[in-house]
Amino acid sequence: MHQTINELYLGYLAGNIDRADFEGSVYIHLMNNKEKTCLAHWKNDEYEDFISWFYPRLRKSIDSYRETGASFEAFMNKYLLISSREYQTRTATNAMTEYSAWSARIPEMYAREEPPVYAHKQAEDFLSLLIIDKMGKRNSKRILALVLKCYYYVSADFAERIAPKIGLKSGELLEMLDKIRKTREKKDDKIYRLKERIYCQYYRCIIYDKRLSVIKENSSAYNKLKLRRDKAKIRLEKMRNRMMNIRTEATNKQVADVIGIKKGTVDSSLHQLKLKWEEMAKKADLN
């Protein structure tokens, strides 16, 4: 015959059951007798998940019981009811968080992701045009300076394909890119950490919006949450502005040091590239 919770409790008080066995027996009883609890209307899988979540709180519930008229079983039912409300709130919040994050993931990637990495044929064709200087000669060093300047967006695949066009082996160009990345490592780590904080803040705002959508408007809880949401959005915009003002390109001095030429040469090369870019842009507009 299965013992009731009250019978188990009396056995525990009498010293016939030690604490660990008592807690385990109460847990098994709750798991196998859903219909005898205040949560009989719950689905079985939902109830089982809740009891597993509740188990670490079982010790606290036993210590909280005082014999003031209500039986231990009645007390446990009340404790289960209160705990079930906390469980449902947490479960709903987690589900809302997950839904909001996944719902926001794709549009956020489209709207806020970094510029595309230079790894396609259009970029190669573009650099092939820029490599010809105003005298009609190939000037591969100025393209090398540009690639190193924009190292942050240069993929390994693109570097391997563009290297022969600027008179280098792919390994040589990759080595130069590694050198400039090591030089810029602290700066890049700072940028990475700021990006992570921006992503977290963005999802926090999305979650606030989702939670506001299920709370009654103009209630105390709604107004408090709305205030937090508004502050979070202001902070997000400030973080994004900071990100926009951070330079991701290498300095001309860093580029010059990696190539082994004077900084003035890099300055001149990049200036000439800028002029040619403007010239190409004007021709494209006319066409």
Poorly predicted runs of 5 or more residues: 106-120
- The CA-CA distance between the termini, in Å, is 92 Å
The overall pLDDT, averaged over residues, is 81
Give the helix tally.
Answer: 12
N-to-C SSE string, H for helix and E for strand: HHHHHHHHHHHH
Quantity of strands, as a count: 0
Rg of Cα set: 33 Å
Largest sheet: none
Structural class: mainly alpha
Instruction: State the helicity in percent bands.
Output: over 70%
What is the molecular shape? elongated
Quote the beta fraction. under 5%
Please summarize what this structure is.
The chain has 287 residues and is an all-alpha fold. The protein has helices spanning 5-13, 19-32, 44-64, 72-112, 121-130, 140-149, 156-162, 170-183, 185-212, 220-245, 252-259, 263-286.
Structural account:
- This protein is mostly helical.
- Helix content is 74%, strand content 0%.
- The chain contains 12 helices and no strands.
- The chain has helices at 5-13, 19-32, 44-64, 72-112, 121-130, 140-149, 156-162, 170-183, 185-212, 220-245, 252-259, 263-286.
- The protein is elongated, with a radius of gyration of 33 Å.
- The protein starts with a helix and ends with a helix.
- The relative contact order is 0.07.
